[in-house]
Design goal:
141 residues, alpha+beta, four-stranded mixed β-sheet, four-stranded antiparallel β-sheet, 2 helices, 8 strands
Length: 141
């Protein structure tokens, strides 16, 4: 009798476990890895022209490069063609566009006038690609 009740209990438990899944299908669910991606490798590409000799670059009103400051986390690659600002581990955009502004600080870092804007703050489309846990954002200016 005890063996029979154990077999019945195990069978019922198996039935509950196998039928307890989400019936909406896996195609409508977001993979768990997408929820874990909070940063991406960025490439801000300046096509057809060059960054100013001393530049300040802001992404969504946050300064990411100020070539007149001593410490920098990111650097403009002026050797690349086209020139590019790579930013490893920067936050993933939360909107459909990103606001990019490039300011010419002048060769002596003394430019602070309103007309020093090399590329005024504008919303730009971007490309987001994901490969597993790695994400890349490309913005073409």
């Amino acid at each position: 009798m005890r063996t029979l009740s154990t077999v019945i209990s195990a069978g019922l438990l198996f039935t509950l476990v196998s039928c307890g899944g989400d019936s909406s299908g896996s195609s409508s669910r977001t993979p768990a890895i997408d929820q874990l991606i909070t940063s991406a490798d960025w490439k801000i590409v300046l096509e057809g022209r060059s960054f100013p000799n001393k530049a300040m670059v802001a992404v969504n009103d946050e300064v990411v490069v100020n070539e007149c400051a001593d410490k920098q986390s990111y650097f403009i690659n002026r050797e690349a063609n086209p020139q590019v600002l790579p930013m490893d581990g920067y936050s993933v955009p939360t909107k459909n566009t990103v606001k990019i502004e490039v300011t010419d600080l002048g060769d002596d870092c003394g430019s602070d006038s309103d007309d020093s804007s090399f590329l005024p703050a504008t919303d730009k489309d971007y490309e987001l690609t994901k490969n597993g846990a790695h994400a890349e954002v490309v913005v073409r200016l």
